[in-house]
Automatic annotation (TrEMBL), chain A:
CDD domains: TM_PBP2
Protein name: Thiamine/thiamine pyrophosphate ABC transporter permease ThiP
Domain ABC transmembrane type-1: 47-248, 308-495
Organism of origin: Pseudoroseicyclus tamaricis
PROSITE patterns noted in UniProt: ABC_TM1 (PS50928)
Keyword Hydrolase part of the UniProt annotation: no
Lineage, broadest ranks: Bacteria, Pseudomonadati, Pseudomonadota, Alphaproteobacteria, Rhodobacterales
Residue spans crossing the bilayer: 12-31, 51-69, 81-106, 126-144, 186-207, 272-299, 311-334, 346-367, 373-391, 434-455, 476-495
Example GO biological process: transmembrane transport
Main location: membrane
Family matches, as SUPFAM superfamilies: MetI-like (SSF161098)
From TrEMBL, chain B:
Domain ABC transporter: 1-232
Segments for region (Disordered): 213-241
Pfam families for this protein: ABC_tran
Identification of the protein by name: ATP-binding cassette domain-containing protein
Keywords for the protein's UniProt record, in alphabetical order: ATP-binding, Cell inner membrane, Cell membrane, Membrane, Nucleotide-binding, Translocase, Transport
One function term, GO molecular function aspect: ATP binding
Stored InterPro entries: AAA+_ATPase, ABC_SmlMolc_Importer, ABC_transporter-like_ATP-bd, ABC_transporter-like_CS, P-loop_NTPase
Organism of derivation: Pseudoroseicyclus tamaricis
Amino acid sequence: MAHRALPVGPGVAASLAVLAFVLVPLGAVALRAGGAGMPSPGDWAAFRFTLWQAALSALISCALAVPVARALMRRRFPGRALFISLIGAPFILPVIVAVFGLVAIFGRNGWLNAALGPLGLPPLSIYGAHGVILAHVFFNLPLATRMLLSGFASIPGEHWRLAEALNLPRFRFLEWPMLRDRLPGAFLLIFLICLTSFAVALTLGGGPRATTLELAIYQALRFDYDLGKAALMAAAQCAVCLAALALARRVALAPVAAPGLGLPPRLPSGPLWLDALVIAAAGAFLLLPLAAVVTSGLAGIAELPPTIWRAALRSLIVALSATALSMALALLMARTGGRLAEVASALPLAASSLVTGTGIFLILFRLIRPEALALPATIAVNAVIALPFAYRILRPALQQAEMNYGRLADQLGLAGLARWRLMLAPLARGPIGFAAGLIGAMAMGDLGVIALFASQEQQTLPLAMSRAMGAYRMEEAAGAGLLLVIMAFGLFWIFDRGGRDAN
Amino acid sequence: MPTDGLTLDALTLTQGDFSLSADLTVPEGQTIAVMGPSGGGKSTLLSGIAGFLSPTSGRILWNGQDITPAAPAQRPVTMLFQEHNLFPHLTLAQNVGLALGPSLKHAASPKVADALSRVGLETLGPRRPAEVSGGQRSRAALARILLAGKPLVLMDEPFAALGPGLKQDMLALVDETLRAAGRTLLMVTHDPADARAIADQVIVVEESRALPPTPTAELLDNPPPGLASYLGTSARARSSS
């Protein structure tokens, strides 16, 4: 409707800034690289591995999410809501901590091998392609489960009753149409997330058979300083991601953040033992690594060296700054960015944060010392990485507020800041708190650009932890990991809680 | 052409592929019921007058002054919606205070207390909308309209969600506050009894046209065919009994 068309203003400027932030560094890298050589067999291997590990990770996550979401949908048990919140934890768990926890369970000296050993079974190794996929499923199974739970909640109660009254097979007439709608979106989102995987591949993968494009970019930059190769890989990664994004837009992604606790009026039955088994297995898979982090970290956290505490403070500053920047951009873009914001907010999903970081470095290194650049660049890159999530959480909330109360606000002359303060911010408070918590936790745990730049003096907590792991200072790594979990979850909890408190 | 009151001068409003035309005058101080079948354009008409919808042609005048280009807040118009009249996160007093300007400080103004007491909500100022009844929410919205002091008040079925008793109370309250203060009222209603109770004249909106106002009793006693079929014979019998 013409009269509801939002004014186009600062949101367009913010969208252009984000586009420039992603594209200009990519251009700088490409320019500096000059003519890139032909891709080597190793580059092709990285390309193929990136695609098939992402596809397989997404496929397994979605396939496992179906029974988990179904079981959670049709069973009521004490602590169900808490359980659903808890199995969402991996999504905001810092990657390096999750890897630590997964190694503690599935690694050579892990709990699983300790259980298998006495049975005479050969020890399993977590390193390699299957480890990368295992970690990706660990992160994304909760996401897929949440998306399907919200899908189940979207089936109206009347339809369940109607199916029952008419004696229709519920799976075929109710569940399957919903799954057919939601699964492609879930698959593509997870595929996209796994395409740009770096920290998992860095720690669990590597070598000719388990190197992702993003990891190959890191190696080209860090060890060979081969900008041409990095630019070529970045372009390949960008092309693949854009293709996946274009596909994803066609299947219309379901909302990321729907809590999905709704229940059908009368619960469809099924074998209880099977649902119990599924829920227990999912709980064990998703929560045991977290438990391992906590138990092994308790000893170390009291004796952390001062370098770790300084890194923690740096991480806190990075996370809070990135949250503020990302929220400001996302709010402006969601409100007044128009169609440009749709594109600009999705583009970071396709960008290589390492290439963005390198590009920033190439543009600015004559003006600013690289060490001085490490933290600001990390803040900016983290703010932009989180933007797709923040935008997609905030946009519907602001639209809803505008739809319900826009005319009242127009009539009362609430414009500009007064409209934000009196109408939009209070009405979208829940999603704003949730988005801020998500960005804060993601930025707190991010191990990306910082790995490229930072010296000892600028390292963040995730980097300090990964260096401790690399140096086999396991006690220190475990303590740092627990501290990192506490900080990431704490930040999420504080922001999310702040959004929920209706005073 | 009289310059007093509201004039819709060869007005055409378009919403999607629906279009409504109006060419009429409402004298200042009159209470008008806007009636007609669903989808006939009643809400479109009110949206246009309030400024939420720009006309494709024609002008809207208030006391001879062209208000067509003015933003909603700049018009001598205020509107009571079907729902969402109060911000859920603000107290009743804060909501009413917004009539004085975009600040929450006005909630403490004696004018707000006065407006609340005129609608019978003296003690409920600190409550939030969710903490009071539907009837009390309607009263608070009415208090804000009273305080806003705009001469032209539009109501889009504002009391449709209330029970019959409460609705009568609210109409009586509108009568003794807004009408008594000489405001010009345009109220969308489906119920001929409402029109008889409060309206001097009726604007019939049907088939993409808003017809000039006709005295209420005259129109309802002898409704034109379109309105008659919309009202149904039983409704007419009930309203005239």
